[in-house]
Request: fold
Amino acid sequence: KNQVEQSPQSLIILEGKNCTLQCNYTVSPFSNLRWYKQDTGRGPVSLTIMTFSENTKSNGRYTATLDADTKQSSLHITASQLSDSASYICVVSPRSGYALNFGKGTSLLVTP
Amino acid sequence: DTGVSQDPRHKITKRGQNVTFRCDPISEHNRLYWYRQTLGQGPEFLTYFQNEAQLEKSRLLSDRFSAERPKGSFSTLEIQRTEQGDSAMYLCASSLYPGVERGASSTGELFFGEGSRLTVL
Reply:
């Protein structure tokens, strides 16, 4: 069973609207949680990285939140732009070891 | 460009042929990872190096797959006798370990290349 589950699987929103993507994980204990943006046919690019002691981290119009007690994270995108259309992947790093646990991603489509 | 670079970006080959991908990591990064990604899935770990040492290999990495990082800089991933099931995006990533961000045993910020897309006919 995947230790990182993302929802929704896909999402379509109108340009200018806000949206929130969810990530639930079971990795424990964990070191940090990352959100990546992956454009079609490209490699993932880091958006935010949060340690277990952080609750929120912003990067421009992207704001990630983390609740380590419930093992949930969200990525909120404000005032979406067409260029936000991509897959957003949640990645959880365990406290020990090298292995990163990747979610399957949420595919976001922003339409005019 | 000082990011992670991969070559070739696209490769189409016939079943049974051998293919080799190259990855040049960020120069000061000591860790290098290979991942495989199929459509609609997140990246799956294949193997990683710390400097020139290959420290871990996934069970996904069958004996047809071999990876090297001979001088602790660039790495190659070779697939022998390719099969149609090998069709995927092969991603390389590098990081500086230990990472500078807070948190015990941090794996370091991971920087990905643009990937090498393999199509096996």
In short: Chain A touches chain B at residues 4, 31-32, 34, 36, 41-46, 49, 51-53, 89, 91, 93-100, 102-105, 107 (CB under 8 Å). The CA atoms of residues 4 and 25 of chain A lie 4 Å apart. Chain A has a mean pLDDT of 92. The two ends of chain A are 37 Å apart (CA to CA).
